[in-house]
Amino acid sequence: MFQKILFATSATEACDHAARVAFDMADRYQSHLTVFHVLGVPTRAYSQVVVDIRTGDKVILDDDYRSWVEEEVKIHYAKQLETAPETSIEVAVGLPHREILRKARDTQPDLIVMGGSTGRDEESAYKRSVAGSTLQRVAKVAACPVLVITRPAASFWGGFSNVVFGTDFSRASDNAFDFAVKLARQLNCDLHLFHALDISAMHAGKLADQDEIEDQIRAALKQMRRRYLKRVKDLPNISIEVWEGLPYVEIVKYAREKQADLIVMAHHTSAAQLGEARLGSVMEQVMVRAGCPVISVNRSIS
């Protein structure tokens, strides 16, 4: 299922937790791994002067500098490369999200692996609570799922065996469901279908009546059975559950209770055009808080 993996990295400690998962997946599933690093952004169009993304310094881009950066990437991942023969390292110049998407179009990977932010945590409290802008832009356009590991805790991982699919019953969630089912079938995973009933929006400024909440939960369970269960009768290990609360909190809690090693969700849930859709706020918060990797799916995966 994961024959080709593209790992987009800043080649810094900020991406080490994502690297751990990317190399582990390549070994576990016998995948070809491309380690891809965008070394700098040109100061002007077609200029040979670029701003190095890691240092912030302006440098003259030539073959020697490109080779030096490639060697630095090899040194940074030297330990992992010792046991990953099917790995290639490539560097590029340009805006990171554009170059990552261009590389993905050229190589057509089955999965893109990214960390949540390439900046240092101490630079901004905001960076610790939202997904990085490069991730935002890649996730909404990529033609394949994007696996995100934003916390070091999420990288201590042992393969896919216990998967949580989070849904809000949107059309976008249907695409994520199809991917989750495909993964569960091919890798023989347990699959947990989960919906978080958002009670904060039920009665703005008022306490929600518990009987109404229970009615909503029963209705959601009925919808899950009708919408999903009839399509996965062949899966032996599947469960459905609905909890009430703040959606991203409940999804993270549920995944922790199930000891999930993967969460699958839709990139966005609105009716906006894909190119205009921003990473959904629930998905974004799950990415930065979950104790396991999170896959963002933005379209139907064949």
Strand content bin: 15-25%
Low-confidence stretches: 119-131, 271-278
Number of helices: 9
Please give the alpha-carbon distance between the first and last residues.
11 Å
What is the number of E strands?
12
Helix content: 25-40%
For the biggest sheet, the summary is: 12 strands, mixed
Mean pLDDT across every amino acid position: 85
CATH architecture classification name of the largest domain: 3-Layer(aba) Sandwich
Query: How would you describe the oligomerization state of the chains in this entry?
Result: single chain
Work out the count of structural domains.
Answer: 2
Tell me the series of helices and strands, N- to C-terminal.
EHEEEHHEHEHEEHEHEHEHE
**Rg calculated over all Cα atoms:** 20 Å
**How would you sum up the global shape?**
elongated
Structural class: alpha/beta
CATH superfamily of the largest domain: HUPs
CATH topology of the largest domain, by name, is Rossmann fold
Compile the SSE list and pairings.
Layout lengths: L3 E5 L7 H13 L3 E11 L6 E4 L5 E3 L2 H14 L1 H4 L5 E7 L2 H12 L3 E5 L17 H9 L4 E4 L12 E6 L3 H17 L2 E9 L11 H18 L10 E8 L1 H11 L4 E5 L14 H9 L4 E4 L5
Parallel strand pairs: 1-2, 1-6, 2-5, 6-7, 8-9, 8-11, 9-10, 11-12
Antiparallel strand pairs: 2-3, 3-4, 7-12
Helix pairs in contact: 4-5, 8-9
